[in-house]
Specification:
Helix content is about 35%, strand content about 20%. By secondary structure, it is an alpha+beta fold. It has a single domain, classed as 3-Layer(aba) Sandwich (Aminopeptidase), CATH 3.40.630. It has a 4-stranded antiparallel β-sheet, sandwiched between helices. Strands 5-7-6-8 form a 4-stranded mixed β-sheet, with helices on both faces. A hairpin with an 8-residue loop joins strand 6 and strand 7. Helix 1 packs across helix 3.
């Protein structure tokens, strides 16, 4: 294949999903750094990532190394999608990431380093510390007010999902989401999550319902963003899991 030849577009049959392993950290970091800036909440919290790229890489890797520790300890589940590498189709590449809270698990014990939850590291230069705090506080409150009030503590919460931009619209996220929905059916639990403007279209296509909007605003700032609280519940045959509300 010459350098000017367009690579063949993958089909769904080319995409596989599997659990994360300890060797996947570099692939996870690549996805986060390349894909997450398209999400307004990530760009809002890390507005200086281009100004401090080394800092951004350092703390992103640190955060997801900590997240991977909790996963390998059984606290949550990371599922990855793989496909032939566009640059070298004979090689397999991790192209998409999803992170799920296991139903019924308690919060990790911070006194046990192996499963300590990942830290936000507000000292990192690529972030806005006030926005980190505002986002965390708003979403934590919304999880209780919107999700726990409807579904109880036992949920298969979708924490994060992202795909490398070069592999968008090839079905990777759909496969990961389908995996989660099948697991939710087996365990009889709902899938709650927060979506941005891009992601909510995919989730709505799969039957997720909007339950409310969560306002995020740091003290003293005029800039405001909203996350959309959505959920899918296999136990609700009617498909109606609640009316939307605004949490300002």
């Amino acid at each position: 294949m010459s350098d000017n030849t367009e690579p063949k577009v993958h089909s769904l049959d080319d995409i596989s999903i599997r659990p994360v392993t300890a060797d996947d950290l570099d692939a996870i970091v690549e996805i986060v750094i390349k894909a997450f800036p398209y999400d307004e909440q990530f760009a809002y919290r890390y507005p200086y990532r281009e100004q401090y790229p080394e800092e951004h890489y350092k703390y992103t890797r640190m955060y997801y190394a900590e997240y991977l520790n909790t996963t390998l300890a059984g606290q949550n589940t990371m599922m990855l999608a793989t496909a032939p590498d566009l640059k070298n189709p004979k090689e397999t590449k991790v192209i998409s990431l999803s992170i799920w809270d296991n139903p019924g698990d308690r919060a990790p014990d911070p006194d046990i380093p192996a499963v300590a939850p990942p830290k936000n590291h507000p000292e990192r230069k690529d972030c806005n510390p006030a926005r980190l705090k505002a986002y965390s506080e708003a979403t934590m409150k919304a999880r209780k007010d919107i999700f726990v009030s409807r579904f109880g503590e036992r949920q298969l919460s979708l924490r994060q999902m992202a795909t490398l931009p070069d592999y968008w619209k090839r079905g990777a996220a759909s496969k990961l989401l389908t995996w989660g929905m099948e697991r939710a059916r087996k365990e009889g639990v709902a899938i709650p999550m927060f979506a941005g403007n891009m992601g909510k279209l995919l989730y709505a296509k799969f039957g997720f319902k909007e339950l409310g909007r969560v306002k995020i605003q740091a003290p003293g700032e005029s800039e405001v963003i909203y996350e959309v609280a959505m959920a899918w519940d296999p136990r609700d045959e009617s498909g109606e899991i609640g009316k939307g509300t605004a949490h300002d």
